[in-house]
Write a structure and sequence with these properties.
Oligomer: single chain
CATH topology of the largest domain: Aspartate Aminotransferase, domain 2
CATH architecture of the largest domain: 3-Layer(aba) Sandwich
Shape: globular
Largest sheet: 7 strands, mixed
Radius of gyration: 22 Å
Number of helices: 14
Number of domains: 2
Low-confidence stretches: 409-416
Order of helices and strands: HEHHEHEHEHEHEEEHHHHHEEEHEEEH
Structural class: alpha/beta
Number of strands: 14
Strand content: 5-15%
Length: 416
C-alpha cells in the first residue's frame, strides 16, 4: 500500500489567503460562466493600468542584450539608477554596489531572511502584515513576532509595544510603509522612533517601500534609510506597483547605514542570489527609464486622478454605510474597512468573504488573513474605476443588510 505524499510540516504555518481557497473558488465560478470582480490583489495591469510606453520601449530596444544570464546582483544601469534615486533623497554616498536586483521584492525578502536567520531567531513584523513577510520568516526557520498597529492609532506602529517584545533572539524589525494592507503612511516621527529603537538593540531594519510614490492628499513618504544611519537598513522597491509592471518581476534591495558591520551579511545574500544565476534581465533595462523619467503615478494619485477618485469612492461608500468603519488610506493601493461590532455582533470575516463571493460575485480578502486576531476587517484594492467600486459597495451593503436580518429570521422561524 503506497502512502500519500505529504508536504513539509512547516507549510501548515504559512498563510497566503490572498491567492488561497477563495481565489480558487472564484476561478471555479468563472469557469461556470460567472463574472467575478477581483478585489483581492493589487494587480494594476488587470484593471487596464498600463506600464508606461517609455519603459516598454526600453525593454524592446535592449532585448538583444538580454539573452545571456546577467550578473547575480543585477545589470549596472539598473543598479546605478536605483543608487541615484537614493542620492536624490539625501543619501549622497549611495553607490551601485549597495543595490541588488531581484525577481520582484518577494524573492529578495526570501534571500535576505535566508541569509540572516538561525532556527528560532525572531523577526518583528507589523500586524496587520503583508503575509509574505511572515511566511518567509517561518520558511527560513525563524519566528514571526507580530507587533500591533492599532486601527485607533491610524494603523501606525505602537513603538513602546515593539520595545517590550524585543528579546535576545530578535534579529530584525520589518516596516511596511506605505502600508499593505491598511494604506497607512507613517509620519517621520514614528519612523525615526523605529530607526532609533532598531539602532538601540542592534536590529536590522527591513523597510518595504514598494508603494513609495503612491501617497494621497497631504501624506508624505519618508524613506527609512534617511533616518537609519546607526544600524543596517535594507530598503525594498520595484517596478510592480508605482510603474504598473507586476509581471516583469523587477525589484531591488538597497543596503545603507552600518555597512562596515554588514559586509559579510551582504555577501551572503549575494551568494544566494548567485545560486539562482540572475534575475529576469529584460525587465531590468526599464529601471533607468522608470526612475529617471516623468513619474506618471503622480497623475493617478492627485485629485481627479484614477486612483484618487477610486479611493474617494471607497471613502464615501464607507461613510454612507451603517455597518462600515474606515481608517482612510493615505497611501498604497488598498482599503481595510471594518464592520462595526455594534452593527453586526457576530460578523466573521471569512464567512462574509465566502458569502460575498458566492452571492455577489466579489472577491475580497478576510482581514484576519493578515495575521491579526480581529475578524471584523477585510481588504480590497483601489484599482477598479470609481464607478465600479461604488457598485461593489452597494452589493457589499446589501449582503451586510441580509446578515443583519438573519438572526431575526432565525428567531421567527424558531418561534413558528
Amino acid at each position: 500500500m503506497f502512502q500519500s505524499f505529504k508536504p513539509a510540516s512547516r507549510i501548515d504555518e504559512v498563510r497566503y489567503e490572498i491567492r488561497g481557497a477563495l481565489a480558487r473558488r472564484a476561478r471555479e465560478l468563472e469557469q461556470e460562466g460567472n463574472d467575478i470582480l477581483h478585489l483581492n490583489i493589487g494587480n494594476p495591469g488587470a484593471f487596464g493600468l498600463r506600464t508606461p510606453e517609455t519603459m516598454r520601449r526600453a525593454v524592446v530596444r535592449n532585448l538583444k542584450y538580454s539573452e545571456p544570464y546577467g550578473p547575480q546582483t543585477g545589470i549596472f544601469p539598473a543598479r546605478e539608477a536605483v543608487a541615484m534615486q537614493f542620492q536624490s533623497r539625501g543619501l549622497t554616498e549611495t553607490r551601485f554596489d549597495q543595490v541588488m536586483i531581484g525577481n520582484g521584492v518577494s524573492e529578495l525578502v526570501d534571500l535576505v531572511l535566508r541569509s540572516l536567520l538561525e532556527p528560532g531567531d525572531e523577526v518583528l513584523i507589523p500586524a496587520p502584515d503583508y503575509p509574505l513577510w511572515t511566511a518567509a520568516v517561518v520558511l527560513n526557520g525563524g519566528k514571526a513576532m507580530h507587533y500591533p498597529c492599532p486601527a485607533d492609532q491610524h494603523f501606525w506602529p505602537d513603538v513602546e509595544a515593539i520595545r517590550a517584545m524585543i528579546t535576545p533572539k530578535t534579529r530584525a524589525l520589518v516596516v511596511i510603509n506605505p502600508n499593505n494592507p491598511t494604506g497607512a503612511v507613517y509620519p517621520e516621527s514614528v519612523l525615526q522612533a523605529l530607526a532609533d529603537l532598531a539602532a538601540e538593540h542592534d536590529l536590522i531594519l527591513f523597510s518595504d517601500e514598494i508603494y513609495d510614490a503612491i501617497c494621497y492628499d497631504e501624506a508624505r513618504f519618508v524613506p527609512m534609510a534617511t533616518l537609519a544611519s546607526e544600524t543596517l537598513c535594507v530598503s525594498f522597491g520595484g517596478l510592480s506597483k508605482v510603474y504598473r509592471a507586476c509581471g516583469w518581476r523587477v525589484g531591488w534591495a538597497v543596503f545603507t547605514g552600518a555597512l562596515e558591520r554588514a559586509e559579510d551579511y551582504r555577501l551572503a545574500v549575494e551568494k544566494l542570489a548567485a545560486l539562482r544565476l540572475s534575475a529576469n534581465v529584460p525587465g531590468q533595462w526599464a529601471v533607468q527609464t522608470a526612475l529617471g523619467g516623468y513619474q506618471s503615478i503622480a497623475d493617478l494619485v492627485a485629485p481627479g486622478g484614477r486612483l484618487h477618485e477610486s479611493r474617494q469612492a471607497v471613502i464615501e461608500a464607507c461613510e454612507k454605510s451603517r455597518f462600515l468603519d474606515l481608517v482612510v488610506p493615505m497611501g498604497a493601493l488598498y482599503a481595510f474597512p471594518a464592520v462595526k461590532p455594534e452593527a453586526l455582533a457576530d460578523f466573521d470575516d471569512h464567512r462574509f468573504a465566502a458569502e460575498l463571493l458566492e452571492q455577489k460575485h466579489i472577491l475580497i480578502v478576510p482581514g484576519s488573513s493578515f495575521n491579526i486576531r480581529d475578524r471584523h476587517h477585510f481588504r480590497l484594492t483601489l484599482l477598479p474605476e470609481a464607478e465600479e467600486l461604488a457598485l461593489a459597495f452597494e452589493r457589499i451593503e446589501d449582503l451586510l443588510e441580509e446578515l443583519a436580518e438573519e438572526p431575526e429570521r432565525v428567531r421567527i422561524a424558531k418561534s413558528a
